[in-house]
Amino acid sequence: MKKLTTLLVLAIAITTASFASNGNGDKTTYNVDTKASKVYWTGKKVTGEHTGYLNLAGGEVFVEGKEVTGANLNMDVTSIEVTDLQGEWKDKLVGHLKSDDFFSAEKHPVANFKITSYNNDKVVGDLTIKGITNEVSFPAEVKVDGDVLTATGTATIDRTKWDIKYGSGKFFSDLGDNMIKDEFEIKFELKATASEGTTSSK
User: Fold this and answer.
1) Strands 5-6 and 48-64
2) Which of 75, 148, 169, 179 is placed for a possible disulfide with 111 were both Cys, Cβ 3.0 to 4.6 Å?
3) Angstrom distance (rounded) from CA 8 to CA 181
């Protein structure tokens, strides 16, 4: 339901792809600004939905010329937050999301996304949550202003592929109003800056 993960997770942030570099084939590394970047999630159930976010734990995107050649983004699962509830109900949901029913934050505190390709404004990569890796893809919009890169993108992910089955109608019957939809939405907002020295080897 609420996954972030994330990865988006984004995932997120990977759209970094469009980042421009020196334009002459040089390699540029863009470092994720963890304070200015977040992954927002929306999980839906029969009776409504919940929203929240989690923080990026760090990451780099590698660009050669104007082409993204790779990226490695980490998401802090322990930072997951809920934004549509307050007080006791919020604390209960956050705790549940961190439990083994959902993201197993204690056992798997970091989710990871690695770009494998970027073409025609479409990001493709491997998303790892709870030690399980699946390929995901989604469209993204990237803007570059000098050495600063910003990116946004939204992905729809089936949580059950990462063994998050709690409340899923695929695996449990007679859930009624307690059923949680398998697909959740992840929206990432990323900011990254070019490493000093402009170029580096990947």
Assistant:
1) unpaired
2) 75
3) 18
Strand spans (E) along the chain: 5-6, 8-9, 27-32, 38-45, 48-64, 67-82, 110-119, 122-129, 132-145, 148-158, 183-194
Count of beta carbons in the 10 Å neighbourhood of residue 78: 14
**Cα–Cα distance, 85 to 95 (Å, whole number):** 13
With contact defined as beta carbons under 8 Å apart, do 23 and 124 qualify? no
pLDDT tens digit string along 142-177?
Answer: 777 768 877 888 999 999 999 999 999 989 988 998
What the block records as the tokens of 1 is 């339901």
User: What does the block give as tokens for 8?
Assistant: 């988006």
Determine whether 38 is exposed, middle or buried from the number of CB atoms within 10 Å of its CB (0-12, 13-18, 19+).
buried
Distance CA 92, CA 202 (A): 43
> What would the pLDDT profile of 37-67 be if each residue is shown by its tens digit?
999 999 999 999 999 999 999 998 777 766 6
Number of Cβ atoms within 10 Å of the Cβ of 89? 11
DSSP 200: -
